[in-house]
Structures are given as structure tokens and as C-alpha cells.
Amino acid sequence: MLTQILEFGQTPKQLFVTPHPRRITQKFKSWPQAPSYNASIADSPVSPGEESFEDLTEESRTLAWNNMAKLQLHEQHKLHKEAVTGIAVSCNGSSVFTTSQDSTLKMFSKESKMLQRSISFSNMALSSCLLLPGDGTVISSSWDNNVYFYSITFGRRQDTLMGHDDAVSKICWHDNKLYSASWDSTVKVWSGVSAEMTGTKRHQFEMLAELEHDVSVDTISLNAAGTLLVSGTKEGTVNIWDLPTASILHQIPCHSGTVCDAAFSPDSRHVLSTGEDGCLNVIDVQTGMLISSMTSDEPQRCFIWDGNTILSGSQSGELLVWDLLGGKISERIQGHKGAVTCIWMNEQCSSIITGGEDRQILFWKLQY
């Protein structure tokens, strides 16, 4: 300032009293883009419109998680005769698919609030379900060692994957690959699972990898990029796997008893796991170190999280909102009459569905 006055004879004036607005920088995707017919658009990693939409979506997610304690019960429906084990929802949110220990897959219309279909593949419990992109096929895992493919369009079972020697406990899907966890102490990776599966063509499933464990595997989850997998075992060990090499990165014995659920943070830097011992453990993915642990007075059977806040379903039926940085429960929400067994959240983080041992599915909305 002194130099400016001496050299130019100017006395500076303050022109702005408020901070400049934040510069919006272009976001580059870390995954390959689909080919485009417009060369000018294809040359740009993210279009301005898409960038703005992503900013708004991220802001809405942050707002939703900041107000998770204001979750309100919207409606509830009893669909099954036994505990609900899995929830999958169509892209437009109109159809809800659930699996249960009563061995049935149910299709429920959210608009008409009516049960549309009930499918039984065997007399054994179903453990989880997922929808393939395009909403044409729903996949269910079963305690009878099989994975079943059901065509929604054609209304029939279109394929069966007989790939395990014991109950299939959990399935995941990413990039035309199916990941199946089992009580036979393995997690298997399968190819040949296409989102364009037709109702008549039967597929040849090829096993790409087999991730071997010492004991039965009760839960698995993938990171957002589909490059890492976390598995939780009956004896309380959390395993982090590198999928491209099918090799184990870390083996962390951090629970006494079965691991109920495990999942990566959105940025893939951390893993959260819950167990029968009531502990919620945060693990650093790069080092495999246990960096945080919280304890509840009962098991947290399932959860969703954004890396800072956790919404968990407890053994008693409550939904608990956890402040991870503060290491405490910030809200208790009355829910099911019995354990919360599964939980689903939409991409905008504004709508939540839970399933429980009381055979009900509960629809939740954020009120803020």
C-alpha cells in the first residue's frame, strides 16, 4: 500500500466489504464417460448444466444429512409373514421390492399402496435383493444356496445361479458383475450379469474371482467406484479387498461376534462396521487402522452414512442418528416393534424405507 502511494500518488480505496462469491470449478469425473454423438460435448468432461445439477444434488444431500434428526414416519405396511431382509426400489420410486425370511419376494406399488406381486422361488428364506439398471430384473439371494433372477417385464423367474455350498447372505451388483457372499466362507464375483437380460435367454455365469474367508460371510458392500469390497464375518472380522487383483488389503478383527453391516464412506476413505457387540467402528481404508469406535447398548443391525452422520437401525426397533465427530447419539426415533433389519435411502437422501422383524416396511420423510 505504501509503495502504491509513493510511486503513483494514489490513495487506495476499499471497493468491496463482503467476500467474493466462491468460484465454481469444473468437476472432472473419475470414471470413463459414455460415448456421445456430439463431439463438442464429448470433449468436455462435464457440461455446465450437469455441473450445476451436481452442485444442487450435493447441496440437497448435505442439507438432508444435517437434518436427519427430523426424520418423520410417513406410512407403514405389513407385507410379509416373517422378518423383512431386503429392500430395492425402482428408479422412479413407484415400485418397492422386498425379500423376507418367509421365502417370498414382494412387489409393492407406492402409488396405489397395494401389493402387486408375490413370488416364491423355494421354501427357504430370502436374504437380500437388488434391481438391475433399467428396472427390468430383480435379483434375490436365498438360504438355499442360490441366487434368483426374476423378470419384472415377463413376470417369471428367468434364471438361477447355483454358485455356493451354503446360504447366500448378501448380494451386490456393479458394472455387469454380481458379488455374492455366503456362509460357505466365500465371496464370489460373477460375470454375465447384464442389465439387458431378456426374459427368455438364459445366461452362462462365469466366476471371475473367489475371495476366501476362514468363516462364514454375513455382509458385503462395494465402494462407489466398484474397486474395493468390504466383507464382515461371523467371528467379527472386517476384511477390505482390492477387486482388480482379487487380493486382501486389510483384515481387521474389530468385533466380538457377528458383523451385522459394513459400508464405505462416499469418498471411499473409511469403512464403518456394526456388530452384535453393539460397537460402531470406523476403519481407515489406506492403513487398515481402527480410528474410531462408539458403543451402543444394543446391536445396530443396519445403517446408512455419509461419512459424518450415521442413521442406524437398532435391535429394539429404534432408528438412531449418530454424530460421528462428536461420538454421540444425537436423536432416537421410534420405529419398528422389533429389530430393524434393513434400510434403503434414495439418491437425494430425502426418502428412507426400513424393514423389520415386525414384518413391516416403514416409509420415512425428512421434514425441514
Structure overview:
The protein is mainly beta. 8% of the residues lie in helices and 48% in strands. The protein contains 3 helices and 28 strands. The chain has a 4-stranded antiparallel beta sheet with strand order 1-28-27-26, with no helix packed on it. A 4-stranded antiparallel beta sheet has the order 2-3-4-5, with no helix packed on it. A hairpin with a 5-residue loop joins strand 6 and strand 7. It is globular. The termini are far apart. 37% of the residues are buried. The N terminus is likely disordered.
- H/I helix tally: 3
What's the arrangement of strands in the largest beta sheet?
A: 1-28-27-26
Q: Please, what is the average pLDDT? A: 86
**Coarse morphology:** globular
Strand element count: 28
The CA-CA distance between the termini, in Å, is 48 Å
Give the % helix. Answer: under 10%
| Portion in strands | over 45%
Q: Main sheet?
A: 4 strands, antiparallel
Indicate the radius of gyration in whole angstroms.
23 Å
Poorly predicted parts: 1-9, 20-51
Quickly give the structural class: mainly beta
